[in-house]
Design goal:
Elements (H helix, E strand, L loop, with lengths): L10 H22 L2 E7 L8 E6 L11 E7 L16 H10 L3 E5 L8 H16 L5 E11 L1 H11 L2 H4 L8 E7 L12 H16 L3 H6 L2 H6 L13 E4 L6 H7 L17 H4 L3 H7 L2 H7 L1 H20 L14 H29 L8 H19 L6 E8 L3 H14 L4 E10 L7 H11 L6
Parallel strand pairs: 3-4, 3-5, 5-6, 6-8, 7-9, 8-9
Antiparallel strand pairs: 1-2, 2-4
Length: about 450
């Protein structure tokens, strides 16, 4: 950067120096920084339906238009955030892409309810596909990225063809998908139930409602799982780790910054008073299981109560839900009876095997097990034949990601099992918030875009 250093002089001279320095900074940005086209509407229905285009500066990058294009979807738990809000990472991500020669389109979308949010993302993608050439972008080289809730929307858009088809588009328009610390199992992405209770109360229920069926349908894993090859073999997914893992609890705590636990006012800029009372840190990491039970104890008690009521109803209806122990008999008596029954079952099984052996080889007399095995083989072959053909995925998680690292790895494994290309990265010294602004993430994405990474 340019700048002038004032060693001596009057206050007027210092003011002049400041003005000249500011001018140099402006010129530096003009010749080096991206050209930004702000507040372009991709639809007129809502004020959130806008996007910003970050065009690489030809004076700063060794590339010329048409530039490859990346569409970025910001996070915020589907309830908060915007393409311009620093806390949610979109400006940093867009600047980093543009400084590396990739045009970046940062989009906003309606907050609050599904499916309005993903409908808006589909509209924005359609607009980019139709218009980006006017700004020097290459519509044949489009990728899409998203952070947190944005990664959920970006991945769902790709794996579920419903949303793009309304604009006569298919997933083939994307050259790659970059999922940064996303949610792929809408109902329970955080592994531990106490974490999921908090998550559902703060995010999922407000966005998708309380229906498990709705959560399932809105989950990217659902649409991948339907096409995964049925195999008992472990997937060959390799976790690529960036940086050294923290070795002590203190080091893990040091990763959490004040910004991550909600001190930054931007995180709740457009929240209600009720939402402001819930700290980001509590949601992701700082709440212990004991605190969770204390804070959400009523929900736990409600579930226990409902379970007890159901048990009582089953009992009244004559459905026996208790373990079968005979009246007037001890546990040992029941154990002896169980052993006798097992012996009889074993004898019956052996006789059945003999009959099967005699019938073997005769047409139409294959055993049920053989038929089932053949059916499974046919299904697996059909799955391999049809499958789901996806663009390459790169899935990122932070080392400390509030439990989302479990969901991210599961999602990547399902993609791998479906026969598609996927790379999975864990960034050790990042948190759920900071990874959404990570230059390292953009480096990996750009390496893929320009084909410099190992295939």
């Amino acid at each position: 950067n340019f700048g002038l250093v004032c060693l001596t002089g009057s206050s007027e001279f210092q003011k002049t120096n400041m003005a000249v320095a500011t001018a140099f900074e402006w010129l530096n940005g003009l010749f080096r920084g991206p050209v930004i086209h702000n507040d372009i509407s991709y639809d007129q229905e809502h004020h959130k339906q806008q996007l910003d285009i970050y065009v690489p500066n030809v004076n700063a990058v060794p590339f010329f238009s048409p530039f490859p294009v990346n569409i970025h979807v910001h996070g915020g738990g589907w309830q908060r955030g915007d393409r311009k809000t620093r806390f949610y990472g979109a400006p940093a991500i867009a600047h980093n892409f543009a400084s590396r020669g990739v045009m970046c389109v940062a989009i906003s979308y309606r907050l609050g309810k599904f499916p309005e949010n993903i409908q808006d993302v589909a509209k924005a993608v359609s607009w980019v596909y139709e218009n980006i050439e006017q700004y020097g972008g290459d519509k044949k080289r489009i990728t899409i990225s998203g952070h947190s809730a944005g990664a959920h929307l970006a991945s769902l858009l790709v794996v579920d063809p419903t949303w793009l088809s309304t604009h006569n588009l298919t997933r083939s328009i994307f050259n790659a998908i970059f999922c940064i610390s996303g949610i792929y199992t809408v109902g329970s992405p955080l592994g531990q139930e106490w974490r999921n209770q908090i998550y559902r109360r703060v995010y999922a229920n407000r966005t998708f409602g309380n229906s498990e069926e709705a959560w399932e349908q809105a989950s990217p894993v659902t649409h991948i799982r339907a096409h995964s090859i049925k195999s008992q073999e472990e997937s060959l997914l390799i976790t690529e780790t960036i940086g050294d893992e923290p070795t002590t609890v203190q080091e893990e705590k040091e990763i959490w910054t004040e910004e991550e636990i909600g001190k930054d006012g931007e995180v709740f800029a457009d929240s209600t008073d009720e939402e402001k009372s819930i700290q980001v840190g509590k949601i992701y990491a700082l709440l212990s299981p004991q605190d969770a039970e204390e804070e959400f104890g009523t929900e736990v008690e409600e579930k226990k109560k409902k379970k007890k009521e159901k048990k009582q109803k089953d009992k009244e209806s004559g459905i026996d839900t208790e373990p079968k122990i005979g009246k007037g008999k001890t546990d040992n008596d029941n154990d002896n009876e169980s052993e006798d029954e097992d012996e009889e079952d074993e004898k019956g099984k052996k006789e059945k095997e003999k009959e099967t052996e005699l019938l073997k080889g005769e047409p139409g007399n294959e055993s049920e097990d053989e038929k089932e095995t053949e059916t499974e083989k046919e299904t697996e072959a059909e799955t391999k034949k049809l499958g789901i053909h996806l663009p390459p995925f790169i899935v990122f998680n932070a080392y400390i990601d509030g439990g989302l690292e479990t969901d991210g790895k599961k999602f990547a494994e399902l993609i791998k099992k479906s026969g598609n290309s996927v790379r999975y990265f864990v960034l050790c010294w990042e948190t759920h918030g900071s990874i959404g602004r990570s230059a390292e993430v953009v480096n990996i994405c750009c390496a893929h875009i320009f084909g410099t990474n190992e295939k």
